[in-house]
Specification:
The protein is mostly helical. It has helices at 26-30, 48-63, 87-108, 111-133, 144-167, and strands spanning 2-3, 10-11, 17-19, 22-24. The chain has 2 domains: 2-37; 48-167, no CATH class. It is 52% helix and 6% strand. The strands form 2 sheets. Strands 1-2 form a two-stranded antiparallel sheet. Strands 3-4 form a two-stranded antiparallel sheet. It starts with a strand and ends in a 6-residue tail after the last helix.
């Protein structure tokens, strides 16, 4: 970006510090005597939405522990985990996959992790919505698929928001 006014070394944008009309680097800035100004700022990583991703994944996973139908096999504890292939089972498996993916995204913030969270969260939401719309024969949906759909939605929105904030960081003034 510029050259240090004291030593003429090149200085990057994050390390350049304007002082009394001059630009100084971190080494020359230390000579001014303020030790808090000598360390260059760390690049900020967007983590605001990443906790929302984890919270949504936890909510989606916890929802599989509740009843998914009002009668029949899904009206008990762990109602989504029925032995036959149903929408509830697909949502439950997707919620299990979503949990480590959301933590990976929270820690690393990679684009591939964000895509995996979005796919997993969308699967949880879709399978939960289908479990609500098409419950097993002679059964009605309970509160489990509703909570799972909310959790999956929170995870997807958090991943999208966090990814967008990562790609377009706010300029600090």
């Amino acid at each position: 970006m510029a050259r240090c006014s004291a030593c003429e070394e090149p200085v990057c944008l994050s390390c350049a510090v304007p002082v009394r009309g001059r630009v100084l680097g971190p080494e020359c800035l230390a000579e001014l005597g303020d030790p808090t100004l000598t360390t260059p700022p760390e690049p900020a990583r967007a983590v605001a939405g990443s906790w929302g991703v984890v919270a949504g994944a936890v909510l989606g996973l916890l929802a599989t522990a509740g009843p998914w139908t009002r009668t029949g096999a899904g009206d008990r504890l762990l109602g989504a985990w029925v032995p036959s292939l149903r929408w509830s089972m697909i949502a439950a498996v997707a919620a299990v996959v979503l949990m480590p993916a959301s933590w990976w995204f929270r820690v690393h913030g990679s684009l591939s992790g964000g895509i995996l969270v979005i796919l997993g969260g969308t699967t949880v939401v879709s399978a939960s919505a289908l479990a609500i719309a098409f419950p097993p024969t002679f059964q009605d949906a309970s509160w489990g698929p509703w909570v799972a759909a909310i959790g999956g939605t929170i995870a997807v929105v958090g991943a999208i928001a966090s990814t967008l904030m990562e790609r377009h960081p706010r300029q600090g003034v």
